Amino acid sequence: xxxxxxxxxxxxxxxxxxxxxxxxxxxxxxxxxxxxxxxxxxxxxxxxxxxxxxxxxxxxxxxxxxxxxxxxxxxxxxxxxxxxxxxxxxxxxxxxxxxxxxxxxxxxxxxxxxxxxxxxxxxxxxxxxxxxxxxxxxxxxxxxxxxxxxxxxxxxxxxxxxxxxxxxxxxxxxxxxxxxxxxxxxxxxxxxxxxxxxxxxxxxxxx
Length: 207
Ligand SMILES: C[S@@+](CC[C@H](N)C(=O)[O-])C[C@H]1O[C@@H](n2cnc3c(N)ncnc32)[C@H](O)[C@@H]1O
Fold this sequence. Notes:
The chain has helices spanning about 5-10, 35-55, 75-85, 150-160, 175-185, 195-205; strands at about 1-5, 20-25, 60-65, 65-70, 70-75, 90-100, 110-120, 135, 165-170, 185-190.
């Protein structure tokens, strides 16, 4: 677990070849400036760096929830896809995770989150397909956490289909993905800029 800025840490620390990445980049409300255009540029650059840092024979999964701000829908799956294309990776799958039951109206955030998986060289054969619509997020360790059920799905895929033995989350928050990975038999490496959350990530354990 590293209490550091991922944008500096990733270029200086090549990931182990048996590592895959699962991460969730911060929303604009997590920045003091709250300027959507500045955040969008930061997000694109950060996502591209994450994809470029992923070992070429492995994969990276982004877990992102869109937001609605000032009457405009900010589609983070679209931003992640732009960043991955700039880094030369291909989309292997795109799942939606229900945050609310189908048919229910939601307001500031949509009723689903995205899980998108990219790789430079891996491919996902048609016969290996897994469900595209996940019925629930699962429990959350804090308000901005990834849902535990969604994380388990992503980690299982990275372990069983991408051969990962180590899980890296460079924006790990309180360490949800790292704790799930450990519980599922993988080593884990986390980076988090906020010292308090980095400390919580060192402690977090899940079943
Ligand atoms: C959406 S939250 C991740 C939550 C995490 N998936 C969890 O389950 O706890 C994004 C995290 O990125 C962290 N962060 C923001 N900028 C960062 C940077 N440059 N380097 C490392 N961490 C950063 C924030 O402090 C925040 O904890």
